[in-house]
Every structure is written in C-alpha cells, then in structure tokens.
Amino acid sequence: MSAASAPKGEGVPGTALLEATDLGVGYPGRLVGSGLSLSLTGGEVLALLGPNGCGKTTLLKTLLGLLPALGGAVQLQGRTLAAWPLAERARVLAYVPQGQTSTFGFTALEMVLMGRTAHLGLLARPGAKDRAVAHEALARLGIAHLAVRSVHEISGGERQLVLIARALAQQPHAVLLDEPTASLDFGNQGLVMHAIRALAAQGLAVLFTTHDPNQALRCADRAMLMREGRVMAEGAAGQVIEAGALRALYGAGVLTVHDAAGGLPAFLPEPAPGASPAANS
C-alpha cells in the first residue's frame, strides 16, 4: 500500500479507537436504547445483531455523532466525541449506510472521490493526491476496473464495494457499516464480507450490523446481541452466537446445521409447524 492510500494512524490492534459507556440513544422525547457500552479496536470486526427496531441503526448514528447521546458518553481516541470538529471526525470515522443508491449516473471513481470531502477546503476541488487515494481505495477492494463505470451499470455487490471504497477514501481509522449486505444476492454478500475482513487485516476497526448470524459468526471477531434497546450478550462471536441465544434474541425457533467436517455450524429459522421441506426449499 502506498503512502497516498494508507489511512493516517490506522487502528493499532488492541488499541481502543471508539468507546461507548452507559450510552443512551434515541430522539427528542423518545429513548430507543440505554445502558449501551462497547469498544472497537483496530484490526477487529464487531458484529451487531438484533431484530428490527431494536436500536441498531440509532446506536450507529449516535456513535458517529449524527445523533446526540441521550446519556452516557462516546469517546473517539480518548477524546469525547463532541470535542471533535466535524471535518476532523470525518477523517477518523467512516460510515457506510444501508442500501444507498444515487439518482445521478456518477462513475465509481466520482463516487469514491466524494470521500475526500473531509480533506478538502471549502469549495476546493479534488487534486492529483485525492485522485490517487480514490484509485487506490478502489484497488484495495479489487474493483479498480470499475473506475470509469457508472454506478447504475454495475451489480449491487459491486456498488456496495464502491461505497466502502468511498469510506476508505476518507482515510479513516474505523468504518461503521449498517446492514452492508441488505438486498444483495448470495454471491455479492460474499464479496462484501470478504471486503470487511480485508479492512480489518489492513488495520482498520470495523463495526457492522446484520440480521444474519451466519455472517457474524464467520466474519466477526466479536458479536453484540441487542434487543429492545438493551445488550443481551457480548463477547467472542463463536461463544455468543449459538442457538439458545438466537432464540431469545429473535423470539423464534432456530435450527442448527452442523458441518460434517466439524466446521462452524449454520443457523436457520425454524419452519412453521407442519411445513414440509419442499415448502421451505
């Protein structure tokens, strides 16, 4: 990786970059979650699982400073989040929202260049260095060949990788992704999960939300289970993600499928009583 593309001060493994302590999250007059604590360190992936409406996205937006905390504190590199100027914060924390599309036919390179905004002065245009960073962000994710393609002409998985590349162009220390594989087909989900592991291998801290326990089990180092605005469990993904915990988390039956080779199990929602295998194929 060249100096042009290497994020400044990428996360050092074992060093906390982002910490939340007894955090309250929500909106004016409506508390969505409380007592939420977590830490995110360089070189690791943390998966956040929970049913719809449990507060996952609200928590992410509070960690990013897009919503004010309703209690507790968020610290970024040891400083209170509120003490960070917005542009400076954007050079450290990157956000990939779920299912974002563009009305305009930007090329992949143009989309990624938008990530350089935090490094540019008011009304400044991207220069040669910014273009080098953008090109190398695309290359880091293996999609350099898409640079001149319109985002309307590429697959959903490739478009999601472009959004991740845009986040990388900020040269952040941590990347937070909200349901990065939502609406993607099986193959494209694999592309995005591979990219998330690659980010951690390059030293970034990564947090992503998901509804798929199998993705979390195979991609994350740690997992946090969240229900009704509270943390139910948190720890190593292989210990936290198990059938009993998932039943309690989602209030639904869970089938466990074991690999004949003794690898990681897979978890499936239990079919409705009386349903035949053919009806669920």
Could you please describe the fold and organization of this structure?
This protein has helices at residues 56-64, 86-90, 108-113, 128-140, 156-169, 186-201, 213-219, 237-240, 243-250; strands at 16-27, 30-41, 45-49, 71-76, 79-80, 93-96, 174-177, 205-210, 222-227, 230-236, 254-257, 266-269. With 281 residues, it is α/β, with parallel strands linked by helices. The strands form three sheets. Strands 6-7-8-3-9-10 form a six-stranded mixed beta sheet, sandwiched between helices. It has a four-stranded antiparallel beta sheet with strand order 2-1-4-5, with helices on one face. Strands 11-12 form a two-stranded antiparallel ribbon.
> How many structural domains does the protein architecture include?
1
Strand order of the largest sheet: 6-7-8-3-9-10
CATH superfamily placement: P-loop containing nucleotide triphosphate hydrolases
Order of helices and strands: EEEHEEHEHHHEHEHEEHHEE
Query: In percent terms, what proportion of residues is strand?
Result: 25-35%
> For the terminal residues, how far apart are their CA atoms?
45 Å
Low-confidence stretches: 1-13
Helix content: 25-40%
Taking all Cα atoms into account, the compactness measure Rg is: 19 Å
Supply the CATH class: Alpha Beta
Number of helices: 9
Mean pLDDT: 88
As for the CATH topology, it is: Rossmann fold
Kindly name the structural category: alpha/beta
Please report the total strand number as a whole number: 12
Overall geometry comes to globular
> What CATH architecture would you give?
3-Layer(aba) Sandwich
Task: Give a quick account of the main beta sheet: strands, pairing sense, barrel closure.
Answer: 6 strands, mixed
